[in-house]
Write a structure and sequence with these properties.
mainly alpha, about 270 residues, single chain
């Protein structure tokens, strides 16, 4: 992998990690269209650490407040006593489903499920689900009104993101909207929920990547991660501004168009699954 390829993949990762259009899909599609080798699930997971740092940097005040609320709740023996302590618990417990499913289906996620046919189908199916949820949702509830049940349900939605093409932000935002959350609250919670899952996945894959006999250079990993951080900051800021005044319909159209295009290229033999 050249440094140019690493930089391009970093931009793709950073921009698409937080938009509901699937970073995994784009990290699989872009190299295929450019004639590059598939960087693999491990490389994709490692450069996700750049987007994790982007979330930490952008939401550091929220994270500090949630951490303080969590610790204060433990000391006062009232773990769900405040909004901050509740959200901290929701994020932690909501991470369990994706961790369990990820460990159980780790091999398939890295191999057979990375097929471009699977990615195309996931892009289209979740777009339809997102469209239905967007139309039926009330868009009235805030994070302060979330319950433990809500946190666990969104956590289950996040586990669906292990299917390449689904999009972690796409599934969690859809889950939040289905529970009546406002778009900006669903997006904000999606970003906070991403921290434990993507951090753990990135660190585990980083360990395995450095133990492998064939791997990208350290320079390629660093470049991809740093660029994904910069692009991630831009994507977070842009999406939060976007959802305050607009619906998710733009992303629905994009996902369906990309999925159909991908199926067409596969059918014409331009791309290999």
């Amino acid at each position: 992998m050249t440094l140019l390829e690493a930089a391009v993949l970093g931009v793709v990762q950073g921009l698409t990690e937080f938009l509901p259009i699937s970073s995994t899909a784009h990290l699989r599609i872009v190299p295929a269209l450019l004639g590059w080798e598939d960087p693999g699930a491990a490389y994709s997971a490692v450069i996700q650490l750049g987007t994790v740092v982007a979330v930490l940097a952008y939401f550091w005040k929220d994270i500090f407040r949630l951490t303080r609320g969590f610790l204060r709740g433990l000391v006062d023996r009232k773990p769900f006593g405040t909004e901050d302590s509740r959200l901290a618990w929701f994020v932690g417990l909501g991470t369990i489903p994706i961790a369990v499913v990820g460990l159980l289906f780790k091999s398939a996620i890295k191999t057979s499920l990375r097929s471009l046919y699977v990615i195309a189908a996931s892009l289209i199916v979740l777009a339809i689900v997102l469209f239905i949820v967007e139309r039926l949702a009330s868009h009235k509830r805030t994070l302060a009104e979330m319950t433990l049940k809500d946190g666990l349900i969104i956590g289950l939605w996040q586990a669906l993101a292990l299917i390449p093409g689904s999009s972690r932000s796409g599934t969690t935002i859809t889950g939040g909207l289905s529970l009546g959350l406002r778009r900006e609250d669903a997006a904000r919670y999606s970003f906070l929920l991403s921290i434990p899952a993507t951090t753990l996945a990135g660190l585990l894959e980083l360990k395995e990547l450095f133990e492998a006999t064939s791997r990208p250079s350290t320079a390629a990993l660093v470049v991809g991660t740093v660029v994904s951080f910069i692009a991630g900051i831009a994507a977070i800021s842009g999406l939060l501004r976007f959802v305050k005044t607009r619906s998710m319909f733009t992303f629905v159209v994009y996902r369906i168009a990309l999925g159909v295009l991908l199926l067409g290229l596969l059918g014409a033999g331009v791309l290999q699954p």
